[in-house]
Amino acid sequence: MVYKNIICPVCGGSCDDVQVNLDKKNGTIDVQNACKMGNAKFQEVVSHHRILKPTIRENGKVKDVSWDEALEMAADILVNSKKPFFFLGSETSCEAQEVGLHIAEYLGGLADSNATICHGPTVMGIQESGMVGATAGQAKNRADMIVYWGVNALESMPRHMSRYGVFPRGYWTKRGRFDRTMVTVDPRVTPTAAASDLHVQLNPNSDYELLSAMFTILNGKEPHPSVEEITGVPISVMKQTVEMMKESNFVAIYVGLGVSSSYGKHRNIEIALNFVKEMNNYTKCNIGALRGHCNVAGFNQLASYLYGYPFGLDFTKGYPRYNPGETTCVDLLREKDVDAAFVMSADLMDHIPAESAQYLADIPMICLDIAPCPSTTAAEVVLPGVIDAMECDGTFYRLDNVPVYFEPFTDSPFSETKSNEDTLKQLFAKVKAKKEA
Amino acid sequence: MEALLNTGSTIDEGRLAKGGSKYTDDYTKECAVCWMCAEDFTSLGCPEKVAVISRDRKYSVALTTKVTEAMRSGQVFIPRSIWANVVVEPDTFSTGSPRYKGSPVFVEPTDDEILSAEELVTKMYMGGE
Amino acid sequence: MADVILKPIGNFDLTVEAEVVTPDNFAGKSADDIGKLLVWQGPEELPLADFFSVEGNGGSSAEDTTIIIDGEIPRVKRIGQEMTGGKVLIKGSAGMHVGSGMLGGEIIVEGDAESWAGMEMKGGSIHIKGDTKDHVGCAYRGSWKGMSGGRITIDGNAVSQVGGGLVGGEIIIGGSVKHFCGIRISGGLIVVKGNAVRTVGAEMTGGTIVVGGCIERFTPGFEMVDVESDLKFNDIECPGEYKKFTGDYAIPQKGKGTLYVSCNNNECL
């Protein structure tokens, strides 16, 4: 049967135009409109490597167990932990993340999500200076200058350029690509850079200096000449870029991890945001982050409205606190400051530095995921995941923080659970029962 | 050779990771790769494999080399993956986010075997279980 | 003066938050009572005596009380938080947030200190004889105003964001700093006797920064105005010749700060 307008549960683009043809009898799925990454994830519905049975590791050996046994053991680990840590990954719904946050609060643990190892500094930068933002649709219809700063959109969000960024015909950009100027700022000649009108190839870790110099130019002053050597970009190119921006009708800047993850971190974002604010004295200008996962923005929204902070939540004192560098995933694990972990819908082991990963492998870990990966290998308890937007309904927040409600086209393969939210609710009930006993 | 390490996504890394294929040879072939420019490749003696070593020399990972014009001299790139993160600096400047971009590393020719993602996690992180 | 001696004896596998360890809280209490004060380890509140042996009673007031911590406590956070008087002497390394929000009195750390020492402090003095990490005397996340009074002296090195948002008071670093020293300051004084890596004085709108060593990567929005020699700020002396810059012109705010950079170590500027 053919299903239309399915939401893609992969990157922050959360594309809403995917068409699938699921043949349950033959176990095949045909996917239209999705990119390579999206297509690969849709194949998971019928894949052979899908995790279908809960497992636990006993004396170094992995064995299949019933759902009830796995949930019991998971609850035991969490209840016996002095300071549990919850990594509520972003390839699942806000509804599931919400239950995870409540368990963390109930146990006085800590909760974090993919933002911490992704656009966390961007969120911190926004906290420092506020943001002039726009929805993806606004930028599509109005923007005649696109800046991809520290992001390789073609490979990290493959349909961004065709859906929102560069190619689509918008209301005021009727000729699509021909009505837009595209600039990429990246130390590497990425496919995105190759497709741009101007590629500013700066030195690694010099984003702050480049932004600061462009800001100085915008304020009518001459930047210190040493900036040319630091950034590897001539001042004349900086001036040209600023002029191009001023002369455009609407500038959309998209930042990636190149800005938020290189040296400077949230300060890079902060000055970029201030630059954008000032640029609005001359023309319309806005900034947005290209977010890596379908619901990474969702966790920030959810945690902010429930607990006041976007990520790195510390419930140890009974009320939420937040201090990146102290209450965030990589730091907690590096400093060995938690003693059990619950990892949901994210391959955490894969994406954190060795020192943190080693400690994560040392402590008891519960992992909820759909396919085998380093995190499930190192976990004590593995709970099979349900694929959001394919097998259950829920909510994602798109890259521009627009909530997207998704509906499934098939059912959960498990009789024991309908969704990750359901699994977590069952776990929470067991945790409560044990804690109160 | 000293270099600045950049990590990030490639389309096939994304395709394989999202498709749950982290334990396939294709994934190792796509991600256990160190990109560099021809000049650096030559100065290292055109090795088939290199060890990328963290600044404190505590961690090292063997990777195949790939020569590309996308890189400048003194900069190397590894697709975002478990291999890259072995040598990413864990210090976060009190921001929670490690140095995925611009970590200083050493790059040296090596004959070490390239581990799969599964071998890497069991041998390096889980103490050889 | 009454001395209270705390010796670390507990299990610090998980970090401990001990904001009760201040002369204000110890004043007027016997050693037994002090041992019953509660500290946090994870979500649990446990008596101080579980982690430290307590010797000696508190004085009659905070000013009369000296707390001596006889050992290394890099995993104990918030010692001396919001203290108003008296003295804390840590004979080893201290954890995060030492002297955070401090109003008066004196803290001496003989070893290193973790990040966030003297966050938003308003008075008193902190002397760290070893190194420290990020956010010394800095503003809390999202806040625009950091330390507003008192003095922080660090004999060793600091890392990033020294004195972020400083509005008053003094920070003197004997060693070197890395990134964003004096970010967004609008008052006060930061003296770095060693080197700095980059973005010194970024976004500053007031206050003074002196760098005696070399700045590896200069902040682009500064303009040189003068050369001055043998600087003196009350009792703080900075001998030698300095190039005087104003900035940061990267931000449109009216006020501008002053950045002095040693002539000898920065010939290329």
UniProtKB/TrEMBL annotation, chain A:
Coiled coil: none
Matching InterPro entries: Formylmethanofuran_DH_bsu (IPR016457), Mopterin_OxRdtase (IPR006656), Prok_molybdopt-oxidoreductase (IPR050123)
Domain Molybdopterin oxidoreductase: 50-414
GO terms under cellular component: membrane
Keywords for this protein: Oxidoreductase
A GO molecular-function descriptor: formylmethanofuran dehydrogenase activity
Gene Ontology BP annotations: methanogenesis; respiratory electron transport chain
UniProt-listed NCBIfam families: one_C_dehyd_B (TIGR03129)
Protein name stated in the entry: Formylmethanofuran dehydrogenase, subunit B
Source organism of this protein record: Methanolobus profundi
UniProtKB/TrEMBL annotation, chain B:
Residue ranges annotated for the Molybdopterin dinucleotide-binding domain, each copy included: 5-102
A Pfam short name: Molydop_binding
Molecular function via GO: molybdopterin cofactor binding; oxidoreductase activity
SUPFAM superfamilies, per the entry: ADC-like
Descriptive protein name: Formylmethanofuran dehydrogenase, subunit D
Lineage: Archaea, Methanobacteriati, Methanobacteriota, Stenosarchaea group, Methanomicrobia
UniProtKB/TrEMBL annotation, chain C:
EC number: 1.2.7.12
EC class name: oxidoreductase
Residue stretches in coiled coil: none
GO biological process: methanogenesis, from carbon dioxide
InterPro entries, A to Z: Formylmethanofuran_DH_suC, Glu_synth_asu_C_sf
Species in which this protein is naturally found: Methanolobus profundi
Gene3D superfamilies: Glutamate synthase, alpha subunit, C-terminal domain (2.160.20.60)
Pathway given in the UniProt record: One-carbon metabolism; methanogenesis from CO(2); 5,10-methenyl-5,6,7,8-tetrahydromethanopterin from CO(2): step 1/3
CDD domains registered for this protein in UniProt: FwdC/FmdC
NCBIfam families named in the record: one_C_dehyd_C (TIGR03122)
Catalytic reactions of this protein: N-formylmethanofuran + 2 oxidized [2Fe-2S]-[ferredoxin] + H2O = methanofuran + 2 reduced [2Fe-2S]-[ferredoxin] + CO2 + H(+)
Listed name of the protein: formylmethanofuran dehydrogenase
GO MF annotations in UniProt: formylmethanofuran dehydrogenase activity; transition metal ion binding
SUPFAM superfamilies found in the cross-reference section: Alpha subunit of glutamate synthase, C-terminal domain
